[in-house]
């Protein structure tokens, strides 16, 4: 009778289950994670003591010098036609959204992320323009103030 040792597994086969687990983890984090492009403007939103976070399907950013940004389109802030280009892109995006969802039953909301140093006059001039493009609800994006 032959009582020799069973054949040994190669070392490369021992790594295969570990590689499979790492690959599955990579796939999980790719599917579970949310990747977004960086914001086109750097803004410091105003602080609020407490409240409900803004809700909306679209986000319009307004920088400290009044420049507008939406969906990668950035206006200079000094040129009115340039601002209209951003606002028209926002209107067009709303029209695409309304083609998929009934806007009469569920009107889209807009989050206005404005820098805290922006003048109230600039925001006041912007609101009628946004209303004319179909946004009846506009929430101001803010950060929660730390409780002291």
Tell me about this structure:
- It is a single chain.
- The protein is of the alpha/beta class.
- Helices cover 38% and strands 16% of the residues.
- It is built from three helices and seven strands; from the N terminus they run H-E-E-E-E-H-E-H-E-E.
- The protein has a five-stranded mixed β-sheet with strand order 4-3-2-5-6, covered by helices on one side.
- It is elongated.
- The N and C termini lie far apart (83 Å).
- The relative contact order is 0.17.
Q: Order of SSEs, N→C?
A: HEEEEHEHEE
Contiguous low-pLDDT stretches (5 residues minimum) are none
Radius of gyration: 26 Å
Structural class: alpha/beta
Task: Indicate the overall shape.
Answer: elongated
What does the main sheet amount to?
Answer: 5 strands, mixed
| Spatial separation of the terminal alpha carbons | 83 Å
Number of alpha- plus pi-helical segments: 3
Strand fraction: 15-25%
Helix percentage range: 25-40%
The tally of strands reads: 7
Task: Round the mean pLDDT to the nearest integer and report it.
Answer: 79
């Amino acid at each position: 009778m032959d009582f020799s040792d069973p054949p040994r597994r190669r070392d490369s086969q021992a790594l295969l289950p570990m590689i499979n687990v790492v690959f599955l983890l990579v796939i999980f984090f790719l599917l579970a994670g949310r990747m977004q492009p960086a914001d086109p403007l750097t803004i410091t939103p105003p602080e609020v003591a407490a409240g409900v976070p803004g809700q909306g399907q679209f986000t319009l950013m307004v920088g400290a010098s009044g420049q507008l940004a939406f969906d990668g389109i950035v206006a200079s802030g000094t040129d009115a036609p340039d601002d209209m280009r951003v606002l028209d892109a926002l209107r067009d995006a709303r029209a695409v959204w309304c083609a998929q969802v009934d806007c009469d039953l569920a009107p889209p909301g807009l989050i206005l992320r404005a820098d805290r140093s922006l003048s109230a006059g600039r925001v006041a001039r912007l609101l009628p323009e946004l209303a004319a493009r179909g946004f009846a609800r506009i929430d101001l994006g803010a950060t929660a103030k730390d409780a002291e």
